[in-house]
Design brief:
Elements: E1 2-10, H1 15-27, E2 32-37, E3 41-43, E4 54-63, H2 67-80, E5 97-103, E6 108-109, E7 114-115, H3 124-134, E8 138-139, E9 142-143, H4 144-149, E10 157-158
Antiparallel strand pairs: 1-4, 1-5, 2-4, 3-4, 3-10, 6-7, 8-9
Helix pairs in contact: 1-2
């Protein structure tokens, strides 16, 4: 079984309910097991700033799926929850967004998948929840907690449990 980290985000509809549904879809046949989940965080939009705030979280999973198969399952879950990548603006509003941040210590660069995620160490909205569950994890030679210390996380708000 491989260890993977998946970022969850969204800013349209009941995002927190979509997180729960997405995690259920990922786990439905036992090939993906949830081993850790961060709190949910309200975060300012990134890329395109004239849109509602996002809610973000990160999960740690153990999986028997290969990286591309895990990505395909994540994209199927997004579609099942109403995401249509062909009809949206990059970095724009969406009901759900699932990003594969890291998969074991795999380094991969192909047209469909880059591991670790190419913007992982630039985005506080990913690093804050990731550090909550894996601050000491080293990804691509960088400790997650150290990466978090280098970004501005001042506008990120931890949300209360539902």
């Amino acid at each position: 079984m491989a260890e993977a980290f998946i970022a969850l985000g969204g800013n349209v509809g009941d995002v927190r309910a979509n997180f729960e549904r997405a995690m259920a879809l990922l786990r439905e046949d036992g090939a993906v097991l949830l081993v850790g989940r961060s709190s949910d965080y309200r975060t300012p939009p990134w890329g395109i700033t004239d849109q509602p705030a996002f809610i973000n979280a990160v999960i740690a999973v153990s999986t028997s799926l290969a990286p591309h198969a895990l990505l395909a399952r994540m994209q199927a879950a997004e579609r099942a929850l109403g995401r249509d990548r062909a009809q949206e603006r990059q970095w724009g509003p969406r009901p759900i967004d699932l990003d594969l941040l890291a998969y074991d210590d795999v380094a991969l660069h192909d047209p469909d998948l880059t591991l670790p995620h190419p913007h992982l160490f630039e985005r506080a909205f990913v690093l804050v929840p990731l550090a909550e569950i894996a601050a000491d994890r080293v990804i691509a030679g960088t400790r997650v907690g150290d990466a978090l210390a280098r970004v501005d996380a001042g506008d990120i708000e931890k949300l209360p449990l539902r």
